[in-house]
Amino acid sequence: MDVMRMVRAGEARSLSVAEWIVWPALAIVLATLSVSLHASVHLVALPIAFVLGLLQGGSVLLAAIVPWAGALAQLAAILGIALSTTPAAGPWPITVIGMITLTAVLIVVALRSAWQLGMATWAAALVTTGAIGLVAELVLGAGSGWSVNLVIAGGVSGLALAVVVIARQLRRARREVAEAREETDAERAQVLWAQERARIAREMHDVVAHSMSLVHMRATSAAYRLDALDEAATAEFGLIADDARAAMQEMRGLLRVLRDPDDVLTAPQPGLERLDALVASARSAGATVELRVEPIEPSPSRATQLVLFRVAQESVSNALRHAPHAPIEISLRQDGADIALRVRNDLVDGAAREGGRIDGHGVRGMRERVASVGGTVEIGAAEIGTDGQEGFIVDARIPARPAAGGERA
Which CATH number covers residue 379? Predict the structure, then answer.
């Protein structure tokens, strides 16, 4: 299993532009030195020196591209040079240029592959050359200087390999620590965010839900608590109770989502079919509302319908609050690839706007909802008639096909 892991770790690697300059240049320099030194100093036949020099220098470049192949090429070059040279001509069985090249290959392998491949290459080089030196001493009567040569070559190359391996391990450890710290920070932030959501849910339940419950209870019991209520007043209290009941149902669904971010609203969310009920509720409050809805084919997604309904709902609420007696017009139509929703009302309260813009929470929420499905919205005051009369217009345009991720809008 370890051998297969080393082989997979030593597979081909892509080189950067800088590496394509550095490694070939180093390979050419080492190959040139190897050929000249082995031919002139160690008296190796020129053709053999040329082949061994190319193999020795080329192993550096090959190790950068395919680490295991470069390691094998270096071992073959070391073995060939040890067999082609003698102790009488200089350092043996690993020559000086051989020590430099072995060190370079080990560094490249350690940088480009797993440290086990570098250790295996280093050990194989020492074992093979040590075996050659031992045989030469016992059989041919060569001197014992080869052992010192191996100690020097093994020490220098092994130290270089160890430095690179340790540096890589330290770098990897720092990276893992940084990643673990980021994960811990993200988890801590998630916990804090969940706690904040739970706190908001508690506040909404204790304040808003409690107040809505009181409104519902008082509206429901008004017909029994108050004497001489006519049918119109009783019906009005009934509508108030229905609105309060619907608001509490939506509030409970919102509280579930706040307490559990992975939860979704299981109850059906309001869509375009609720526009008639919205208009009826506004009319029951005394507003004059005109609704014009043109057919839209195909039917928009539920996320898009929810956004359109919420924009219309917030626009009507703002009109009732800032211009309670002004007529309201709601139009919904398909305009090419977009769905266009326009809500306008007359007689904008000048104190409620500044430069044709209103920056309340509701308007900010409308912008965020429309943006969540890839749409745009223009909100502000404008002339709505030829007589120069001013009004307030909310003009939203949403793609008929929802944007990516828009289904959770």
Answer: 3.30.565.10
